[in-house]
Amino acid sequence: MARGGGGDRDRKRSTKDSRRPGKKKVCIFCKEHIEWVDYKDVNLLRRYMSDRGKIRAQRVSGNCTQHQRKVAVAIKTARELALLPYTQRTMAERGPGRGRSGRQDAMLPAPTPEDAPPDIDELEESEPEAEPEADVEGAELDATEVDEEAEV
Predict the structure, then answer these.
(1) Which H/E stretch holds residue 76?
(2) Structural domain tally of the chain?
């Protein structure tokens, strides 16, 4: 008792299925007999990340299953230790996105350098010097006046 009609067997396969697959990439780690993937080797790990910061798939990178898993763990460790970024900044202007067609604040202009907060060095230079302490009436006290008040 077959379900579903069973007519799928007679159909020809599409050209996509009958296409011969390309040459399989060789795992670099297996080829060079690398035993473990170093999370500190940032240049090596960047080869297995996209320009947006995503980890490339096994079929794209050509790694074997074991080394793909080790590369993924090494990339995640390097991200945790701030050796690699989680994402890359993109400069392309994008539309409002899904469900945001009526919002005005979705298309805010990018902040300009004038709007940016000042650097720490600029803050240190512009700090006012400490003013001498004032008396209750607002008069400034000298060291001699402080000594006289202490004697009284």
Answers:
(1) helix 65-80
(2) 1
DSSP three-state, residue 55: strand
Rounded distance, CA 52 to CA 112, Å?
Answer: 24
pLDDT digits (tens, 9 = 90+) for 114-145: 666 666 666 566 655 555 555 555 555 555 55
Query: Of 82, 87, 91, nearest to 55 (Cα)?
Result: 87
**Nearest-angstrom CA–CA distance, 13 and 20:** 13
We report the CATH number of the domain holding residue 65 as 4.10.640.10
Residue written as token pair 């500190």 = 40
Instruction: Count the residues in the chain.
Output: 152
Whether residue 110 lies inside any domain: the answer is no
The domain of 51 spans 25-87
Does residue 48 sit within a domain?
yes
Q: What is the DSSP letter of 108?
A: P
